[in-house]
Batch of 2 targets.
Target 1
Amino acid sequence: MDIYMIILRLLHIFAGIFWVGTAFFFVLLLEPTITAAGPAGGTVMGRLTLTRFPLVMAVSSILTVAAGFLMYLIDSGGFQINWISTASGVTMTIGSLAGILAFLLGLAVQAPASARMAALQKEIQAAGRPPTPSQMAELHVLLDRISNASRWGAVLMVIAVIGMAIARELGKL
């Protein structure tokens, strides 16, 4: 193993720990709390979108996927079917695809919904009054969209983590 692979692996693992751990914190703890809080929870979620949270999640997911892709490219010998078709390669491929799908779900669904929620939150703050019924309705739609995508993303991340955790061991069978 060379220094390049060590750096990629460390980057992949630490960024992945943050990305997956934060996603699970959101799905299992924060989102149910926000939902239970009613209208106040929507305000908290809206405020969260105004922090660095969306940026930090995006950066951690990009680093995880990019480092993982480069390691996969190296481990597979440039996408050689002989490696990909082994038990280890198939498992790594399934895990990798699940991680990439979780990333794409965040990019296509969660990021735009978070950006719109942040813009809506700024509009509400600028107006200096409680949100209008139409703004509240839109906030609920956005929160539902983020929540559903987060749950599916968490499922995909479980598949990715399992694939990454067992792929090398399957190669020893």
Target 2
Amino acid sequence: MTTLDDLRCRKYLVVGRVGMDMSPDPAGTATEDAGTLTADMGGSAANTAAGLIKLGCEADLCTVVSDDGVGLFCLNRLDHYGIGRAHVRVAQGEARTSLAIYESRLEDHKTVIYRNNAADFLMDMSDVEAIDYSAYDAVLTAGTVFAAEPSRSASFRALELAREAGKPVIFDVDYRPYSWPSAKVAEEVLSRAAYMSDLIVGNDEEFGFMAGDYDKGLEFARRLARDVACIVYKMGPEGAVTIADGQEVRTGIYKVDALKPTGAGDSFMSGFLASLAEGRDIGDAVLRGSACAAITVSRPMCAPAMAYPADLEDFLVTHPGPTTGA
């Protein structure tokens, strides 16, 4: 069985999408009032990869982008952040790379996501079977890749190949209803992915969804923990419960004046994993992940807002400290 020490990884294969993010500028501007939009890379997998690299890890992305200006923009931004793209395929045809427009404000916040005929769902068996999994310490993926075929079958194949190579699988549940044909399909598929994983990160609603009852999310997480090395059960403002090595660790959050609600989950994942890689104990790693999330929501955009080590250390020194875990 995978142990917590096996999850102290530095080189990741990240399976999942990259897209273009656009945000009205300056911060606080509503989309309908925008005269200027700032663009950067987006997509939960690519954002997490960027956060890992900023914090000293390595990450290669496996996905598909469209052969157009948006797809080429994403390739350029992957290069900018130092994310390896040897496993990023450029697809011909009518599929399109995802585009998200979101506001850097909390009140009346609006996010518009364009994922019709999404290029990343074209990832297939040939994409994942061409990878040398022995070159990586771990495979990281998020729930979105399982929402449609052929990406769903290819992603499950990637998990199988990772496990055959003896590499831990890290799963960010990342349930987004708009990507799925039905809630029933999502419940079954995400639960299957969870049982193939060694580290699972999700919020209370996501675990409740997989359990088939929102009130039974923590109970479901505890059952999973019998076969999974580590589970982080996030509860929003109430902090998190982390289940590992037969123990439950409760941690709080770092309160900040948030500028926007987006990017917290990706930043948490990168900060948490990078802290584990540094040899930190589980509670400290979760708190540092929470600090990274707080930094990101207090700045415009997502990937550009993610912390470097100096940002994180400065935040931890100057912030009064986390809340007490519920």
